[in-house]
Design a protein that fits this description.
The protein has six helices and 50 strands. A hairpin with a 5-residue loop joins strand 38 and strand 39. The chain is mainly beta and 1002 residues long. The protein is 6% helix and 53% strand.
């Protein structure tokens, strides 16, 4: 039998006390127990919030959020206004169970993975609004397909809380399979008035570990400020916040950037090792067996990188209560993050040629020692300059209307955009090749964390007199995302304290990704070394920049390389020319017109209902059941090259001829889904809670997957051609989510919890091949001229040279046939163009399709404990994830695993008493698949990584706080490898970062 109840006074008192501990940030609009009565009918025991700050208050607020929320929700709350636990939001989020982060090359937290689901399938909200996300391709080049949000762009000073919804609720926007992450900012009418200013000096030790020309400042500055005040007896509020940060840092990498060509032991591919008894097989020790899989490196390199960043954040919020029951909010957020990077490198390229090598045992074999014979090959010492500017602005307006004791209504609008673009005359990424052609036999030892490169060089090694510019690549990449969103919502409370949530929404998301490239393939050299003044270069040694890796002092390591003035060398290269290769000053600047341009619009309409109630049984039982309807229309435009004809230029190759101008081609798609959710909460004891949840969520495909337009490979064979295109009609990933958790709140701000989750995911996207024709491209193969050659009886259908000779001899000068002469083999030369009566060419088109289903499941264990009134406490959690969505290292075909799947753990020990706050936080993430690529469908695994951070603050007075922070205190390194740990992709050294701060509250 169902009965109704008011919320017990004891439960209300507990919540009120916890809210008091939460401090002013948590006094904002908080996700509370869905059965709580409205403020108009609150019990007299409800307490006014008092201001309590610090680590304990932040943890108490986070526990309160977890305990009182519908479903499984975790979060982090500011320790005080303007003081978030970490200066980087991603670094803070990784302290939450199930959350792990991706780091930039310079070691800063950037993007988040939740419960094994990667950044592209976690939705980020700002105050409940969907935020745009802009990204450039790898290294600032190419097109980006990503929907992931980069937390490195946002300063934490104006953030009051971050909520991580691990289970789906009908009232949250869609798009997050792993989680929906809501970033909340300060509201002036919901917090104590404050004026505060903060200053920091930052010393990033990685900046010291660079060549002098790449180094920035030893100390850089940060400043931030918050002004939040109420006027007119609390009816009008103003909040202004701003921050500016400069950071000069660096990172150094050993890389096999081009990846590993992978074969089975019995492969006869021209790049594979020779089979036993052939070629140089006698120089191979422990050759991989016939059934083993092994890889040969394309290149190996060391590089050093200087990075400078300038980040500006600003926010303005105005609130006005024209009536006691009406609150209006107007807010604007601006973000700008400018990053510059300079690189110098020493690299060696391999030709899959003869040499000595020693290999590990199979079934996945990798080189221990790998060598190739070289004579006067290139010692490559290229340089690069990358410069990007990321901006985001968001304008929002909200009206909350408490119509009466039973009904609340809300309307919300926002218009936001995020843009990533080049910020240099060299484009978003400019690479200048430099080489000295003095390299002899080259050997690499891959057995350690750092590969040891050894190069046979002439006496004196690499000299400035031997160096010259070779090839170059300058790229412009651009990405802009825009979101316009309208949301209307309401809550109707029944007399029994049950409630009905309802709402409608409309969102239009536009995404544009574009790129262009200027590439000069002069890899043999531009001019001669004599064309370049020796003073452009200076010598340095790579070995000293990798001192965090064992092996950096190995006497075999050849570290000598040349550093150069990038601007000066480009100016000179643009002046160097020969009769066969004239000077080309414009070759060293990125093009201004984009040659690839994808524009996609997603329009979504939604409506939801959710009913919440509590059954007053001996063990109170709360239920929330809801449903959300989501309809999305996709329209994509892509700029493509327009094919006009097919020309037969040689015996085995036909080529597509393109129009001079490009054209936009469009495509559309549409899908709609009903997304139910059910949240159950059983209060077994007053402090023991059992939760169960089921929900269905969706994750939208990457932008490149739903692009329109088709790209054809330039070379066509006699049997036809190949090509690729996106698919605007793709369905989203659909996940059925199951959660079960037990939470024990056994003391003040202390709890233990264990949870199990499972996600059954369908509509995974993988490539499929379909045979199509364009309807317009006619091929000479099988045409009138071709058939005449076969009918003559002198040519077989497989003898392309014979057929061409016949056509030129008998049809030269007729439509499409132009003979030009005879080559050294006696074959006729010239062109044969497909004619309207000829067959239409067929193409094998690769396109993405929804084809697979799989699952993942895992466990989360968390503990938070305060040791009485001693001030000491600890918070720890561990997440274990497993899935069938893994990569099979023994398979050489295309695979589509889940990126980012990994276990993780956190331990935070702290002291918070009187004027001192000390926090030591250790975060660990197990090895995980971080991507696919590098000479085909090869896995890239990031090795397990643990980092210790320390934060100490002292309140000198009630207004003045001094602090010191240390990030990566133990100077950890990161490593990424392919199918075997010896198959290095990237080994990265950064360094500890120290911050010294002062904050004053007026």
């Amino acid at each position: 039998m169902k009965t109704y109840k008011a919320v017990p006074r004891k439960a209300m008192l507990t919540s009120a006390l916890l809210a008091a501990l939460a401090g002013p940030a948590w006094a904002q609009d908080q996700t509370t127990d869905s059965t709580a009565p409205s403020s108009q009918s609150a019990d007299p025991t409800t307490l006014d919030a008092v201001q309590v700050t610090g680590i304990r208050a932040s943890l108490a607020s986070s526990m309160n959020l977890k305990r009182d929320s519908q479903g499984v929700v975790d979060g982090i709350v500011a320790e005080d206004i303007g003081k978030f636990p970490d200066t980087n939001l991603a670094e803070s989020l990784q302290r939450i169970s199930g959350v792990s982060i991706d780091r930039t090359s310079s070691g800063e937290g950037s993007k988040v993975t939740v419960r094994g689901i990667g950044p592209d399938f976690n939705l980020v909200l700002l105050n409940g609004r969907q935020m745009p996300a802009s990204n450039l391709g790898d290294g600032g080049a190419g097109l980006s397909s990503s929907r992931s949000f980069d937390f490195a762009n946002i300063a934490s000073e104006s953030i009051s809380a971050v909520e991580v919804y691990k289970t789906v609720r009908a009232d949250n926007p869609t798009g997050g399979i792993g989680a929906t992450i809501n970033v909340k900012t300060l509201r002036p009418l919901e917090a104590e008035p404050v004026i505060s200013v903060g200053l920091k000096a930052v010393n990033d030790t990685s900046n010291d570990n660079l060549p002098s020309t790449l180094q920035g400042k030893d100390f850089t500055g940060e400043m931030s400020g918050i002004f939040s005040q109420q006027y007119a007896d609390g009816r009008f509020g103003v909040m202004l916040s701003g921050s500016y940060q400069e950071r000069d840092s660096g990172f150094n990498q050993a890389t096999v950037a081009e990846g590993w060509a992978t074969f089975r032991g019995d492969s006869t591919d021209g790049r594979a090792l020779p089979q036993p008894g052939t070629g140089y097989a006698d120089r191979i020790t422990n050759r991989p067996d016939a059934t083993d899989v092994y890889g040969r490196p394309q290149n190996t390199a060391y590089n050093v990188n200087g990075v400078q960043r300038q980040r500006t954040n600003g926010q303005a919020t105005l609130q006005w209560k024209p009536l006691d029951n009406v609150t209006t909010t107007l807010d604007y957020t601006y973000v700008e993050n400018k990053v510059q990077q300079q690189r110098s490198e020493l690299s060696v390229w391999f030709n899959y040629g003869p040499g000595d090598s020693t290999w590990t045992n199979g079934p996945i074999a990798a080189p221990i020692i790998y060598s190739e014979d070289m004579t006067n090959s290139d010692v490559s010492m290229g340089g690069a300059q990358l410069a990007t500017k990321n901006t985001m602005d968001s304008l929002g307006f909200n009206v909350d209307w408490e119509v009466n004791d039973s009904l609340d209504l809300s309307f919300d609008f926002h218009n936001s955009s995020a843009e990533s673009q080049p910020d240099s005359k060299y484009g978003s990424a400019g690479v200048l090749g430099v080489a000295a052609f003095v390299r002899g036999t080259t050997t690499v030892d891959y057995s350690g964390d750092l590969p040891i490169i050894n190069i046979a060089l002439p006496p004196g090694g690499v000299q400035a007199a031997d160096a010259l510019v070779t090839g170059s690549v300058f790229q412009n990449s651009y990405n802009k995302s825009e979101v316009q969103q309208y949301q209307g919502s309401g809550v109707f409370r029944f007399a029994d304290y049950s409630a009905l949530d309802f709402g409608v929404g409309y969102a239009e998301v536009k995404n544009r990704s574009a790129s262009a490239i200027m590439q000069r393939d002069s890899w043999g050299g531009v001019g001669t070394p004599a064309d370049y003044d020796d003073s452009i270069w200076y010598a340095d040694d790579m070995a000293k920049y990798f001192d965090a890796f064992s092996g950096h002092d190995d006497p075999r390591l050849t570290g000598q390389f040349l550093v150069f003035d990038f601007d000066r060398l480009i100016d000179r290269a643009g002046q160097v020319g020969t009769a066969g290769s004239p000077a080309c000053p414009t070759c060293y600047y990125a093009p201004t017109e984009y040659t690839d341009d994808i524009r996609t619009t997603e329009t979504s309409k939604s409506a939801y209902l959710q009913y919440r109630t509590t059954f007053d049984w001996s063990m109170p039982f709360s239920v929330a059941v809801g449903v959300r309807y989501e309809q999305t229309e996709v329209e994509s435009l892509a700029m493509v090259r327009v094919p006009e004809s097919i020309t037969w230029n040689s015996a085995n190759e036909l080529n597509i001829d393109y129009a001079d101008d490009r054209a936009f081609v469009g495509g559309k798609g549409k899908y709609d889904y009903v997304l139910p959710n059910l949240d159950l909460k059983l209060d077994i004891l007053e402090n023991l809670v059992l939760r169960g949840s089921y929900s269905r969520s969706l994750g939208r495909p990457g932008w490149s997957k739903i692009q329109s337009g088709q790209t054809l490979a330039g070379i066509v064979r006699t049997q036809g051609g190949t090509g690729s295109r996106g698919n605007p009609g793709l369905e989203p990933l659909i996940s059925d989510n199951f959660d079960l958790s037990l939470e024990w709140y056994y003391g003040e701000s202390s709890y233990a919890s264990v949870g199990f989750f499972r996600k059954n995911i369908k509509n995974f996207i993988s490539d499929t091949i379909v045979r199509e024709n364009t309807g317009e491209l006619h091929t000479p193969v099988g045409g009138a001229y071709w058939n005449a050659a076969l009918a003559s009886g002198g040519c077989a259908a497989t003898d392309g040279a014979c057929i061409r000779n016949y056509i030129f001899d008998n049809f030269n000068g007729q439509p499409g046939v132009t003979a030009t002469g005879t080559n050294s083999a006696g074959e006729r030369t010239g062109t044969i163009v497909g004619q309207p009566g000829d067959p239409v060419a067929g193409f094998d088109i690769t396109l993405p399709a929804n084809q697979r289903s799989d699952h993942l499941d895992g466990w989360e264990v968390a503990l938070q404990h305060l040791f009485g009134q001693s001030g000491f406490g600890v918070a720890a959690n561990y997440t274990k994830v497993k899935s069938g969505l893994t990569f099979d290292n023994y398979s050489l075909g295309d695979q589509y695993p889940m990126i980012g799947l990994s276990d993780s753990a956190n331990v935070v020990a702290f002291y918070d008493k009187n004027r001192w706050q000390v926090r030591a936080a250790y975060n660990w993430r197990d090895s995980f698949l971080s991507g696919i690529g590098g000479q085909g469908p090869n896995p890239n695994y990031t090795d397990d990584y643990g980092q210790l951070d320390l934060n100490i603050s002292y309140a000198a007075t009630d207004n003045l706080t001094l602090s010191v922070e240390a990030i990566n205190l133990t100077d950890e390194t990161m490593r990424t490898y392919s199918r075997h740990t010896n198959m290095l992709r990237y080994a990265t050294q950064t360094g500890p970062r120290y911050m010294f701060g002062v904050r004053y509250k007026f």
